[in-house]
Specification:
Layout lengths: L5 H28 L23 H11 L2 E6 L2 E6 L2 H10 L11 H4 L13 H17 L5 H19 L5 E2 L1 H18 L1 E2 L5 H16 L22 H21 L6 E2 L7 H14 L8 H32 L1 H14 L15 H14 L8 E2 L4 E3 L2 E3 L4 E4 L2 H4 L2 H4 L12 E2 L3 E2 L18 H18 E4 L11 E3 L3 E3 L4 E5 H5 L1
Parallel strand pairs: 2-9
Antiparallel strand pairs: 1-2, 3-15, 4-5, 6-9, 7-8, 10-11, 12-15, 13-14
Bound molecules: protoporphyrin IX containing FE (HEM).
Amino acid sequence: MYGDSPVSFLGVLTGILSLGLLLVVARRNKNKRKLPPVPVMTWPLVGNLPSVPLNPRKNLKQWHKEHGDLFSLYFGRTLVVVVCGYNRLKEILVEKGTAYLDRPVMYANEVIGMGHTGLAFSSGPLWHETRSASVSILRELGLGRNVLSEKIHEDIEFLLQRLAEFQGEATNMWHYVHLSTANIICSMVIGKRFNYEDDRFKDVVERIGELSAYANDMAALNYLSALTYLPGDFLKTGRLRRAVEGLKDFAEFCCNNGGRDGVEDTSNENKNFISLFRRKQEEKRVNGIDGLLDDQNLCKTVMDLLGSGTETTSATIAWCVLYLLHHPRVQVKVHEEIDMELGHDRLPCMGDKLRLPYLQAVIKETQRLASVSPFSMMRATSEDVDLGGYLIPKGTTVLPNLDSVMHDPEIWGPDADHFRPERFLNNDTTVMNREEFIPFSMGRRMCPGIGMAQIQVFLFLASMLQRFKFVPPKGEELPTLKEKLGFIAVPTPYKVCCVDRLTRHD
Ligand code: HEM
């Protein structure tokens, strides 16, 4: 029919094409309406990145206030859905958690060619298998039990001695705490404690610090890979690459030596993370199971444990001492509680925890207010999901805004931005467990190091406060409470005088 008249054929064709175009545009707009609102101007190529500062905590708080629990941001062309508020976070991390278990791809892992392996940044079956092996190994190593606290005591004794040597002179206490927490993780992972003067050990601790610090500078690279070609190193990519490679070399060295050439072998019947992982590999091999726990996966998992486990714990301890400098009356109460319940004849152990509710409340308040992992770790949707009436496509990056819960005045009261440990106490005698207290996130992918972190933070702080009074350097202003946000939120480095309470008691 159309063959008879070219004019009418062209007309119909144009009509069809226009209709098609209209449908595409309509569908695009409809898709846009299906996503949570974007709070700021979106630019071509860079998206909303110009409006997201290196430390976006204040901005996210403001956008949460203005737009509610869900809003979208474009990091370059990548859609990132920010999820705020306890109920929404519980929905994505726990109730409908299966669809939000994946991680988006991260530049830092890509540069060393280990993008999809290990525990912290993997997704799908590889993550499932690595997570279940790692959690069962960590359990076997005695996390959450007293076995671990014995190992920790050795490092605490070293730390106390080191701090006492300064005889009350101002020092960067956090640096020594960092070395000790790193050594504890090494002891668990490799079955080997390092001499604190060991160059390899000192180097890897420095690398971990750098990795965490540069994480924000180079966050844009995850979304604008063209930036890697810029001359110079203003995004610190070179330093980041060196830091990741340094950590990788160290992990490879550990996996290959497995603690056998250790300065001091602390493993019980050669029980450490690496040897138990190898045992699982062997079990699979013997049973003819084609598993995913290969050597590269082991090496990356070791990197993840070292990277995630040291800075978070030591920063929490550093935050606590900093808050105590700002709240001397709280420090007096902690000292009184320790003196009354423990005395000074032995180091605190985990069995003392129940007897020190005020200290426990101080630790919880520190974790709440400092919120060292304010945005948890990014997740990605593994299927299309309906979230609050919006249709979020498969593969979307999701940012769980833990900060929005930890500082929510509706949960913690109008003084949510202030340090007040009493909010965690029932009648001054027992500690209140609030489900909204989520520094380790929630659900199946929550922090697997929670047991170890809680033991370390409690034992370190109880022992440090049993021994020292922390005061600011004479004649100087109190150190700032301003944070530095990298991979996590750490205090601005500060100096503190550790005044030995033992010499006073003698
Ligand atoms: C106060 C100390 C710590 C805090 C606040 C903390 C917080 C977190 C948070 C918020 C996440 C993200 C969880 C999620 O995606 O939902 C995480 C993941 C992780 N943490 Fe921790 N963490 C701490 C200590 C530790 C320690 C001591 C270890 C090692 C033993 C560790 C190992 C890990 C690993 C491997 C992951 C990734 C888990 C996965 O993706 O399956 N963390 N942590």
